[in-house]
Amino acid sequence: MPEIRKDPVIGRWIITSTDDSIDPKEYSYDKAEIKSSEKCPFCGKNSDMIENEILRRNYDGKWAVRFVENKFPALIENIKIDRYADGIYDKMTGHGMHEVIIDSHDHNTPFHEITPEEMEIVIAGMVERHRMLKKDRDLRYVLFFKNYGASAGASLSHSHSQLIATPVVPKIAVEELTFSEKYYKYKERCIFCDIVDQETEEEIRIIKQNDSFLSIVPFAPRFPFECWILPKEHNFSFGDMKKKDFRSLAIILKDYLKRLQIVFPGLPYNFVIHTAPFGNRYRDCYHWHIELMPRLTKIAGFEWGSGFYIIQTSPEKAAKILREAL
């Protein structure tokens, strides 16, 4: 029987099936491929292809993560911000930062196969870079994201993530922030803290948890087997994460990605880190988190036209399958 569900954070609607969900083997997808490293700009032997390295962190005698300028940036740092109107339209110069985060030393080792220790260093580097960008008064927001596999948007097969820092707050972030603030004013509680509490109590959509983090299939996901990773302790900013939690996040992030690849070998995916904008306005009402989106289905006319998403495997069944994968 179909069921219509409402996302509790931004009010998005989805349609899922509670008793006729399809099994993993019924999905078809294009597997991610690792191409030759001969001309890969991210490999150590081709280090001369990278002009401007911003940050590097090492592990076990070799680099574990490198932050470098994007060769084809969406936004450029050395542009003065100029806002102006064109009739009813608003526009501004393309000031911002666009960096590549090379998160695996080895060309043939995808992100989900690096060690928890290496993943911890990648996370630590992201937190450090977030804190550095926060000092730039022209920037308001930074988004960390990963595209794994060509169908998820990756143009190079050597594992890498990206960050884009913008002088405006992105629309999706605004939607989350606006509702979170409204919810807090009405209930004097964080909506994400309430999600953590209810999911912990019900357990049916939990994939894994440790002392600091919880991974769940959200109640109203956009994609089958989607995952949210949330801090158990309230924290509005990714850049404010405590050092003691880096390892816990690395473990639970790797855990989900490992389970996903067991169920769907070679499956492309995206993940994004949603955090508050720079400043303290949303300290009490917002809660940073990671959203991971497997590329099992394609967005088509109904989704584009309505904002609905159709989920062919219920969140509860997906969580159960992922729990039982290990």
TrEMBL record:
Instruction: Kindly report, in one word, the top-level EC class recorded for this enzyme.
Output: transferase
Q: Name one Pfam family in it.
A: GalP_UDP_transf
Q: What are the GO MF terms of this UniProt record?
A: UDP-glucose:hexose-1-phosphate uridylyltransferase activity; zinc ion binding
Query: Is Transferase given among the entry's keywords?
Result: yes
**Note on how the cofactor is bound:** Binds 1 zinc ion per subunit.
Q: Which residues form the Galactose-1-phosphate uridyl transferase N-terminal domain?
A: 4-170
Instruction: Give the matching PANTHER family.
Output: ADP-GLUCOSE PHOSPHORYLASE, UDP-GLUCOSE--HEXOSE-1-PHOSPHATE URIDYLYLTRANSFERASE
Family, per entry? Belongs to the galactose-1-phosphate uridylyltransferase type 1 family.
**Listed name of the protein:** Galactose-1-phosphate uridylyltransferase
Native organism is Muiribacterium halophilum
Tell me what gene encodes this: galT
